[in-house]
C-alpha cells in the first residue's frame, strides 16, 4: 500500500525553548506514524529577537527589559516548567549555562544551507541541543561551522559561508512569508500547506491531525487548541 505523503513546515527559532519541545514531540509522532505516512519535513525561520545585537545581550537583563524587574522572581519557576516539559521528550534544559540571548540570523542561515545539503533536520536538532543543553553561543560562526560539519554539511560548503551573502535573502524571504501568513508565535507547524498547528502540542495532537487531513481544508485553518509557544514579543 502506498503511504500518504504529509508535508510539514516547522516555523521556529533556535532561541525558543518551546520550539525544541515541539520539535521533539513532532518527532515522536512521526516515528509512531511512519508505517502509515511518508513525511517531508522542512524548517522555516522566525526570529523572536531580530533586533538583538550580534554580540547578544545578557539573559537576565533581556528579561528585565522585556517584562520589568518583577520577572526576576519568576524565572526559576519558568525554567522549571520547561525542564518538566522537556524531560519526557529527552531534553535536558541547562538554563544555568544560558547567560546570553543570541542573535539567531546566522543560525537560520545554517539551517537553510543544511536544507540545500539534505541534512536540515539533523542540523536544526543539533542547534537546539547545542544551545539549550550545552549553552553554546548560536551566533558564534566557529561553533555553527562545527555543528554544520558534524551533522553532514560538507566542510567546503561552509568555508567562508558566513562571510558571504549566501542564504541571507532566502532567510529574509521565508521570514516575510511567515509574517504574511499571520504567524506571530512559534513553534508553528504548517501541514500540507493547509493545516496550522500552533504551539508545542503533544504527540497525540499530531496523530489527530494526520488522521484528519483532507484536500479541501481551507489554508491554515486552526484545528487545535493553543499549545505552549514563544511570541514575537519574546514571551515564552
TrEMBL record:
Record-annotated DSBA-like thioredoxin domain positions: 8-208
TM regions (residue ranges): none
Database matches in InterPro entries: DSBA-like_thioredoxin_dom, Thioredoxin-like_sf
Molecular function in Gene Ontology: oxidoreductase activity
Source organism superkingdom: Bacteria
Designated name of the protein: DsbA family oxidoreductase
UniProt source species: Pontibacter diazotrophicus
Lineage: Bacteria, Pseudomonadati, Bacteroidota, Cytophagia, Cytophagales
